[in-house]
Amino acid sequence: KAGVTQTPRYLIKTRGQQVTLSCSPISGHRSVSWYQQTPGQGLQFLFEYFSETQRNKGNFPGRFSGRQFSNSRSEMNVSTLELGDSALYLCASSSGGGSGGEQYFGPGTRLTVT
Amino acid sequence: QKEVEQDPGPLSVPEGAIVSLNCTYSNSAFQYFMWYRQYSRKGPELLMYTYSSGNKEDGRFTAQVDKSSKYISLFIRDSQPSDSATYLCARGGADGLTFGKGTHLIIQP
User: Fold this and answer.
1) For the segment A71-104, what is each residue's pLDDT rounded down to a tens digit?
2) Nearest beta carbon to residue A107 from set B43, B88, B92
3) Which of A58, A63, A26 is nearest to A42 (CA)?
4) Could you tell me whether strands B103-108 and B11-14 are parallel, antiparallel, or unpaired per DSSP bridges?
């Protein structure tokens, strides 16, 4: 079974721009979660989607948004990029009925904001 | 106080040694506990998943949960240089996963 895939793998953007990241979950998985990883803060939860609905949300500003499509693929959007948004963005999928179950991560998208 | 605390290391041990990695958590409502391994510039890889107190073993890895003291551990037996990575503990609950910051482990050949 193919794992979680994320595109693009690397991205360089300028402050003020916006960016869209994509995640394809493991086949059959209906839950997709997004995380931001930085050296200072570690892995921080952004949001989780299940069956096209946002089920949980972390403590990030409204510039961070996401959506999930009927095939469970998910996108994450960051508007008005700031230098502090430079990070590894990870998505994870789970089969999941309940939040917090086993989650399988993709390789991440490394975003650099200049 | 961060919900999941983990010593960042680095922790350096010789090849073949038993490694002990530890985390503490503050919220008793936590239901699931996981350990992930992350190599440099890669996504985290799920190693162990448990939801009850006690030990769970998988090959060279043993996860231990003590809910009374809010303490979780990962033991690695017969450590190998390929085990050198960052190990992340996580707790899961109704609000998703919360991670520790990770412990950087170095296995010296």
Assistant:
1) 999 999 999 999 999 999 999 999 876 555 788 9
2) B43
3) A58
4) parallel
Q: Is the omega angle on the peptide bond into residue B8 within 30 degrees of 0, that is, cis?
A: no
* Closest residue to B43, CB basis, from A58, A102, A105: A105
Tens of pLDDT, residue by residue over B47-71, are 999 888 889 999 999 999 998 888 9
Structure tokens at B31: 């239901």
Task: Check: CB of residue A34 under 8 Å from CB of residue A46.
Answer: yes
Residue B68 forms contact with A (CB below 8 Å):
no
DSSP lists the bridge partners of residue A57 as A47
CB crowding A40-78: b at 16 or more within 10 Å, else e = eebbbbbbbbbeeeebbebebeeebbbbbeeebebbbeb
Whether residue B100 lies within 8 A of chain A, CB to CB, comes out as yes
C-beta separation of A55 from A48 below 8 A: yes
Tokens representing A69 are 């499509």
